[in-house]
Amino acid sequence: MTDPATVPAASDPMHGCVRCGRPVPVHVALCEECNPLGLRQPAATQVHAIAAGGIVLFVIVLAVLAGIGLSGVGPFSGTVRAVEAREGGLAVTISVSNEGSKDAATTCRVVEADRPAGGPGQIVQTPSVPAGETLEFTAPVTAFGMDPKALAVDCQSP
Questions:
Q1: DSSP structural state of residue 119
Q2: What is the per-residue pLDDT across 113-139, written as a single tens digit (0 to 9) for each?
Q3: Per-residue pLDDT for 91 more than 70?
Q4: Among 58, 85, 66, residue whose Cα is nearest residue 149
Q5: 145 backbone φψ class: left, alpha, beta (φ>0; ψ -120 to 50)
Q6: Which band of pLDDT confidence, cut at 50, 70 and 90, is reported for residue 54?
Q7: How many CB atoms are closer than 10 A to CB 73?
């Protein structure tokens, strides 16, 4: 006996059965052979809720893994030790302290000391700073011209 809901009319739009691909009407998910007992078809809201739930769960897992990976990193503090003229810009010697329990690199923003906000700036990547230690390095900076001037640095913590 054939269920009238699964028998397509000649003008009904069709799509493939989600399990085997046989043509079925768009309001039906499974063909009669894949659903011989005529069980209720899954509702679109059920299918979308499962997909949305999977996405939300994946984002939560990524957030937990990121929190675990970043725990113990930083905070970092930095100071400018020296500024010298160099071909094409300035050579800035920066001292960075890692107050965390893990070795890590960070980014520091070098700015003019008298214009820490709104003035020109340049991002500098630090080498890996050992946990609980201070590292001094020199980085080339081109955002301030070639004349040495008072600079300040702000190092980011995760």
A1: S
A2: 887 777 788 999 999 999 899 999 999
A3: yes
A4: 85
A5: left
A6: very high
A7: 20
Res. 96 pLDDT band, cuts 50 70 90: very high
Q: 147 vs 30, 73, 84, 109, 134, CA distance in Å? A: 75, 35, 8, 19, 28
The C-alpha angle 6, 9, 14, rounded to 5 degrees, equals: 70
Round to whole Å and give the CA distance between 34 and 22: 10
Structural domains of the chain sorted by starting position, each given as residue range(s) with its CATH number in brackets: 14-70 (no CATH), 76-155 (2.60.40)
The two structure tokens encoding residue 151: 């600079």
Instruction: Please answer whether residues 104 and 133 qualify as being in contact, where contact means their C-beta atoms are separated by less than 8 angstroms.
Output: no
